[in-house]
Amino acid sequence: MATLTFEQARQCVLQKLCAAQIQPQVEIVGLSDAAGRVLAEPVAADRDYPTLARSVRDGFAVRAADLPGDLFVIGEVRAGESFAGEIQPGQALEIMTGAPLPRGADSVVMVEHCTVAGDRVTIPRTLAPGENVSPQASQARANEVLLEAGHRLGFAEIALLAMVGWKTVPVFARPRIAILATGDEIVEVNETPLDYQIRNSNVESLAVQVKRAGGCPNILPIARDLYQATRELTEHGLRFDMLLLSGGVSAGKYDIVERVLADLGAEFYFDRVLIMPGQPLVFGKARDKFFFGLPGNPASTMVTFEIFGRSAVELLGGQKEACLPLVWSKLAQDFRQKTGLTRFLPAVVSADGARVTPMAWQGSGDVPSLTRANAFLVTEPDRETWTAGDWIRVLLK
Ligand code: AMP
Ligand code: MG
To answer: How deeply is 154 buried, as exposed, middle or buried, from its count of CB atoms within 10 A (0-12, 13-18, 19+)?
Structure first.
């Protein structure tokens, strides 16, 4: 089976999901419930934006050719009004931000640049025609498509929908994602674990991450490391739009997830990625559903979902594109690593984003450290040393 680099594995996930040509169901939601959802139909402008040329400043509407000069003020126009008259040479109209530019005027001079005395305004500067004016249709023409289907709706998109008069919005149904923890040592959160047991935290972090990616998480009962139990729950999980398994994909004697999936006819696209944490990582398709077998150590589960599973959920949800922005920051201290793997290491990015400090941690089982990090440093696999001040990639948490 295949071992891939981080980039190859990401490419593989994106390519398999795009090739699947997912067409989710469409539902109609109210505008106020549409944030975070994925638009199912294109949105077009209902009219020109702006509908009329309008002022972007408080000031005086003028003819640029009259400046500099001393002009006669013939009245005012406020936002929400339209001035019936026309500006003649030597005239100005007091105008408020957002008000339509009167006929005859071609620009607006800011009130801060004028001296007003009675019905005269003195403007000592010149102005380029069009200055401080937003021309008709400069943002959008009537019927022009402003948002394509497959666009995730954030606050600016909600403003746009409101702007063009959409009170209800067609969005894609959220993909239903099954989450299945495996492991003989795992107990439920409300149980008191024995010394050699641990509570099931992975399904909780995964549920949060799935929701954040636009999916609807469904947590299944814990699968013990027994063939039949794991098989039954895996089959159940494959009835959802995608299955996330946690644990059971390493090389241990009781890591049976891959065998179960293989017996269910799975096609495996990769089962190892050259990353840390999370080297043993399975991605494939069974019963026509994608699945990820994520390694069980909490940091491995979180990181591998974030860098691969998240994009898969987004694409299953009808998003046209799924990106993973790695931003750049400057290392606050020297840093070294063994080459060979792309590492995702807990780190603290300073409040202004300018500096990033790697954190001491106890490895991929160390959940308390992860709560103190606000990001992961992302190393290049072929580089050994960095000096304080060097640029390095960062994945924000
Ligand atoms: P595995 O990938 O099954 O070998 O699991 C590796 C380690 O991850 C285990 O020894 C546990 O400490 C931890 N682990 C596995 N599953 C979970 C879970 N559902 N919640 C929290 N930790 C887990
Ligand atoms: Mg296990």
So the answer is: exposed
Beta bridge partners of 343: 276
What backbone torsions phi and psi does residue 365 show, to the nearest 5 degrees?
-95, 0
Ligand positioned closest to the Cα atom of 201: 1
Alpha-carbon distance of 43 to 65, in angstroms, equals 40
Residue 16 CB coordination number (10 Å)? 17
Q: What residues flank ion ligand 2 with Cβ within 5 A?
A: 183, 247-248, 296
- Label residue 237 by pLDDT band (50, 70, 90): very high
Measured from the Cα of 202, ligand 1's closest atom is 20
pTM for the complete prediction? 0.94
- Grouping H, G, I as helix, E, B as strand and the rest as coil, residue 314 is helix
Pairwise CA distance, residues 79 & 361, whole Å:
58
Residues 52, 294: Cα–Cα separation, whole Å? 56
| Distance from residue 191's CA to the centre of ligand 2 (Å) | 19
CA pair distance 238, 261, nearest whole angstrom: 10
Residue 311's Cβ-count burial label (10 Å; 0-12, 13-18, 19+) is buried
